[in-house]
């Protein structure tokens, strides 16, 4: 009798594992498929402007973010939510700032607050602006990569070309 219960329980457990495995694989494939292209812009926007400002402020200690410029994502790119006084810029970046081969590249749920110090606000923040402009213009990943390469080559050429 115990053997029969053990056998039945064992087969039941194996069946449960098989069903769960298939379900998990299906979810994993759905997750990959759901981020294979850009979602509608509405999914990337935060409905509450103040919530985005608060999230951006959380990227740095209050002594910095209190006086920082705070950016929020609008339909046409980043906009100033709060003017700053100390040269720092805090923003909530979206998933498209991740590497191009990241499977979460188009995930509208990913939001990462970051603050740029004054030198980074001048040198790195423009990359955030440019990538966001390309996304909102409907560029594919391949087009963004090509545009980024062309821009980098152009910038390097200008930097190393002697002044006339």
Give a written overview of the molecule.
By secondary structure, the protein is of the alpha+beta class. It has two domains: 34 residues; 120 residues, no CATH class. It has seven helices and four strands. A four-stranded mixed beta sheet has the order 2-1-3-4, sandwiched between helices. A hairpin with a 2-residue loop joins strand 1 and strand 2. It is globular, with a radius of gyration of 23 Å. The N and C termini lie far apart (96 Å). About 16% of the residues have low confidence.
| Biggest sheet details | 4 strands, mixed
Structural class: alpha+beta
Number of DSSP helices? 7
Helix content: 40-55%
Q: Tell me the distance between the termini.
A: 96 Å
Helices and strands, in order, run as: HHHHEEEEHHH
């Amino acid at each position: 009798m115990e053997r029969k219960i053990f056998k039945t329980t064992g087969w039941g457990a194996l069946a449960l594992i098989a069903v769960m495995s298939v379900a998990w694989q299906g979810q994993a494939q759905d997750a990959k498929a759901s981020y294979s292209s850009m979602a509608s812009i509405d999914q990337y926007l935060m409905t509450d402007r103040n919530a985005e400002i608060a999230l951006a402020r959380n990227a740095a200690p209050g002594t910095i973010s209190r006086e920082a410029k705070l950016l929020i994502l609008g339909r046409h790119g980043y906009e100033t939510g709060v003017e700053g006084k100390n040269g720092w810029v805090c923003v909530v970046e979206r998933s498209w700032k991740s590497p191009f081969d990241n499977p979460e590249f188009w995930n509208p749920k990913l939001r990462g607050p970051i603050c740029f110090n004054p030198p980074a606000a001048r040198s790195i923040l423009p990359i955030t602006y440019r990538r966001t402009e390309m996304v909102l213009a409907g560029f594919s990943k391949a087009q963004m990569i090509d545009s980024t390469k062309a821009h980098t080559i152009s910038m390097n050429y200008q930097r190393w070309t002697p002044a006339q």
